[in-house]
Amino acid sequence: MIIDVDTGVDDASAIMLALSRPEVEVVAITCVNGNVAIDDVCRNTLRVLKVCNRLDSEAQTDQPETTVYKGAEKSILGEGERASHYHGNDGLGDAPNHEPVDGTLIKKEHAVNALLRLVNENPGEITLVALAPLTNIALALRLDPDFGSKLKEVFIMGGNIEGKGGDRLGAEFNFFADPVAAYVTLQELHCQTTIVSWELCKSVGAGVSWAWYDQWVEVDTNKARFFKNICRMTAERNRNIIKTQDFSLCDLLAMALAIDNSIITEYLHVWSTVELGGVHTRGQLISDWRNKTKNPPNVRIVKKFSIEKATEYYMSMVL
């Protein structure tokens, strides 16, 4: 697996989950501008690896090396978008007392070049989990149009299948942050591509109960304490201000589905693209639900999943 991130709180949880699973080999984490600026994304990724004992210089002898690469610093058109209002100014909930990390552990090779190299070295074997604006992926496709066909499959957390936006009226954050990259990616991947949409992640019953959350973050491990620390701001807002029925992290759900496809209980294959115009709809995922274009399906959109099965995986990330 390669994970492409713009590490905020939700990316951090997804990375923790992937690294906790013995059946998953994370060969690389590629960083891209998104929730926070690229240097903060890289720093946050190292922080997550540190708490998981997976930094190159400190990795446990029984664990494979997890390398981190710095990628695109701007969207394709350099429009710029941040989510500091959601993830905090530092991307990790502005949590205090983070341990320092060594920035020299970021590999010198550019993330896009690393994606191309690793996929060429392992054709048909790598699952790419894209949890951020798709800039790195689109650039890889521009450098090598066959890049997508060499991947085993791709999971994308992004897009909105019902036209419901996040901060924007008609678009989800990752697609809005680089709509051109999202457009290129969906049109040119040419491998099984699964969309885990904003609406799915935020639907009723898609998260864990607050009672379960309280047990989850109180597990007596360093990872649980780190997770509780970075989630504090998000949990407080959702529980006491927005008053959501449950606690959900979009990237964590996408990672669980990527690790175990059997968690998915309903999906639909459909041709989809991304809107590049419109004051309120730029970055919106557009799907041909009635097959009017007669184009063959290019994505698999998850419609339903088992939250009970997903939570079995969630607990492993803090142990």
Radius of gyration based on Cα positions: 18 Å
Number of contiguous helices: 12
Structural class: alpha/beta
- The residue-averaged pLDDT reads 93
Unreliably modeled segments = none
Main pleated sheet:
8 strands, mixed
- In total, the number of strands is 12
Strand content: 15-25%
Order of helices and strands: EHEHEHHEHEHHEHEHHEHEEEEH
Domain Inosine/uridine-preferring nucleoside hydrolase: 1-309
Family: Belongs to the IUNH family.
Protein name: Inosine/uridine-preferring nucleoside hydrolase domain-containing protein
GO molecular function: hydrolase activity, hydrolyzing N-glycosyl compounds
Description:
- By secondary structure, the chain is of the alpha/beta class.
- The protein contains twelve helices and twelve strands.
- The strands form three sheets. The protein has an eight-stranded mixed β-sheet with strand order 3-2-1-4-5-6-12-9, with helices on both faces. Strands 7-8 form a two-stranded antiparallel sheet. Strands 10-11 form a two-stranded antiparallel ribbon.
- Strand 1 (2-5), helix 1 (9-20) and strand 2 (28-31) form a beta-alpha-beta unit.
- Helix 1 runs antiparallel to helix 10 (222-242), helix 4 packs across helix 5 (135-143) and helix 5 (135-143) crosses helix 7 (179-188).
- It is globular and about 55 Å long.
- The mean pLDDT is 93.
- It comes from Mytilus edulis (Blue mussel).
- Residues 1-309 form the Inosine/uridine-preferring nucleoside hydrolase domain.
